[in-house]
Amino acid sequence: MSTVISEQLFKEAKELFPGGVNSPVRAFKAVEGIPLFMKKGEGCQIWDQDGNKYIDFCCSWGPLILGHNNVSVRNAIVEAVDNGTSFGTPTRAENLLGDLIISNHKYIDKIRFVSSGTEATMSAIRMARGFTGRSKIVKFDGCYHGHADSLLVKAGSGLATLGVTTSAGVPEAFAQETIVLPLNDEEAVKSCLQHYKDEIACIIIEPIPANNGLLIQDPQFLHFLRKICTEQNVLLFFDEVISGFRVGFEGAAGLYDIQPDIITFGKIIGGGLPVGAYAGSKEIMSQISPDGPVYQAGTLSGNPVAMMAGYAALKETLKEGFFESQKERTEYFVNAVVDYAKSKGYNFSIYTVGSIFWLAFSENIHIRKASEIDADSMQYFKKLHKALLERGVYVGPSGFEVGFISEAHTKEYLDIAIEVFKESLDIAFN
Predict the structure, then answer these.
(1) pTM of the model
(2) Which residue, 288, 317, 346, sits at the end of a domain?
(3) Domain boundary among 255, 284, 317
C-alpha cells in the first residue's frame, strides 16, 4: 500500500491549514499513519491519490446514503449548475425540497434551510430562547451538536451544575447558560428542572447519540423527556443531523413515535453538499425573521445546487422498501462480523440501528452513556483501523465515530468487507 502522494500532499497541507486539515478528525491523530487524500468515489468504493481502493464505511460521515457519485444526485447537480450556482434570491429548488420533506414528515410544519448542522443547531437554540423567553439550555454528556459556543461545554461537578467550557475561546459566561447531564438518567433531569425551574428554554438531545460511540437510548427515557418537557413548558429539541433520514424518513422521531418541538437536520438532505435545516411547528417557527423577532440569515441558505442534490437523494429514499433494505443489509454485515468475533472469544461487539453501526471493544449489551466507554479499548481500534486500511476497507479514523451503510453496499461488497474484518480482528487481538 503506497502512500507517497498522500504523504506529500499532507506535508504541503500542514503549511496551509492548522494541523494540515480543515476538520480535526481528518488528521488521523487517533490512529496510525497520515491522512489519506481521496481522489474519487463510485458506489461504495473510494480511491486515494496513490491509487489505493477501499470499500468505504465512512460515507462522508453519513450523508452519502446512496453511495458515492450516485447517478440521480449527480444529474441533479449538473442540471442545477447549468442554470447557475447561487442567486441570493428564492428559487424553486427550495420549494421542491421543503415540500418533499414536510409532506413526508408528520412531526414538522415548517422548515428553514441553512448551510451546516452546526448552523442549524445554533439557530434553533436561539429560536428556543426567543420563543420561551428563557436563556438556559440542557444538553447531555456524550451528545455532540456542532461547534457553536454554548454547545462546546462539558459537565460541571454535579448532577445539576452549570457547564464548563471544553474549548479555548468559549467564554465562561456562555458555558454558564448550558447545563450538562448524564444520558439515560431520569432523576438527573428531574433534579435539574426543579433546580432551574422557569430558566430552561429547551432540552437538546441526539435521540440516537452517534458522535461519541452509538449510545442507543432506552425509548422509555426519550418518552420521559417528552412528558417532563410538556409538564415544565420546556421545548424538546431533537438533533437529528445524523439520525434524520438514516433510521427512516422521519428519523428517530418516527422510530420512537415522539413529537419533538424542534428538529435539526443535516448530512443527507444535501445529497453530499453542505446543508442543514431546522424545523418545528408553525407556532414555534413563526419566531424566525422575517415573520418574528428571532434573527437568522444566510447568503447561501437554500443554495439551489445543494437543494437539488438533496431533493434527488431524498426522493430515492422514498422508494418502497428502501429503509428496510438498508437495515437488513446492515444487520447482515454486523451479525457476520460479530459472530466471528464471538467464535474467537474477542471482547468485541457492534452496535447498530438503521444503517448506522459502531465498532465497540466491549461485550456490554447496552452502552448508553459516554462514561461507559472504555477509553483504553481505543488501542484495539487503532490496530484494527490500520489492518482494515491495508486490506482495502475504510472506516472513520476514530474509535468514537460511527460507520454507515449505503444503498451501494451490496451483499457482494459486504461479503468482501466481512472477510477483511475477520482478518483485521485477528490482528487487532493478537
Answers:
(1) 0.95
(2) 317
(3) 317
